[in-house]
Amino acid sequence: MKPMNAAEIRGSYATLLLPINANETIDYGRLEEEIATLIATRVDGIYSNGTAGEFHTQTEEEFRRVNELLATRCEASGIPFQVGASQMSPQLTLERIRAAKEWQPSAIQVILSDWFPLTDDEVMSCLERFCAVADPIGIVLYNPPHAKRVLPPALYGRIVHELPGVVGVKVAGGDDQWYEGMEAHLDALSLFVPGHLLASGVQRGAHGAYSNVACLNPRGATRWYQQMLTNMPGALELEGRIRAMMNEHILPFITRHGYCNAACDKLLAAVGDWAPVGTRLRWPYRWIPDTEADRLRPIIHAAIPELFAE
Questions:
Q1: Taking the alpha carbons of 60, 63, 67, 68 in that order, is the dihedral positive or negative?
Q2: 6-217 — its CATH code?
Q3: Quick one: pLDDT band at residue 309, thresholds 50, 70, 90?
Q4: Burial 123-152 (b: 16+ CB within 10 A, else e)
Q5: What is the predicted pLDDT for the residue at 302?
Q6: Res. 283 pLDDT band, cuts 50 70 90
Q7: pTM (2 decimals)?
Q8: CB 296: neighbour CB atoms within 10 A?
Q9: Domain spans of the chain?
Q10: Residue-averaged pLDDT of the chain
Q11: Mean per-residue pLDDT for 194-213?
């Protein structure tokens, strides 16, 4: 796969979710079926080892097997894919980046060193080493709200000026002031925001999403992104209903019941019922019972039927 630059990383990317057996092993048969389904929906891209891909629970052998499977299938079908080389240890991240280069992804995702927040200069040093090892493949910085260090727009200005190997970033987005601060950097940086905020994000300059909406229905999420390019008012109206659904039915699992984000993403996939992923997470994380997916399925389908239309 040809490495992608910032201008080429666009659209609705689907995350690879790990099907977990009762004995906590990865079910590679179900994983292969999931990849085949994602490819068939012609999403804009697929990425591995994000939060919902449970990169933080994988051994290095599992990391290799998951990504070799993804790379083989995406290369054969021409679907852009990004390998998540994230690890809490920057030394292990470097090892994962070296492994990821073998699979020739369109980009490589990383997090910043995790145990102690980095200073600005340490952020630059960390990303500089990641870029040097990944070259000529670009780096996408995964910098969600739960990161130990959430970077401000001014630091992204320094990154794009000094580190052209950083081609993209996944962030939570922000208010109008935040987008104004990011505007000067968007020619050199692909900006991806949360899936359920994508229409309003695109309206203000974002380029795509590593999408929780694709967890719910990858084909519908891709179709919604295309709507943004031709009918933004309609796309914004649909976003309003998606956000209302998330706030009413999904967010309480985090705020009220203490489940992690990955549990909610797997719940969405179970509601969408497009692949045999299941809701189980790896120890020590709790997962949301399948019965909740059964309860929510008719409610969510009725609230946003466009996402499920074939």
A1: positive
A2: 3.20.20.70
A3: confident
A4: bbebbeebbebbeebbbbbbbeeebebebe
A5: 97
A6: very high
A7: 0.96
A8: 19
A9: 6-217
A10: 96
A11: 97
Q: What does the pLDDT look like over 24-71, one tens digit per residue?
A: 999 999 999 999 999 999 999 999 999 989 999 999 999 999 999 999
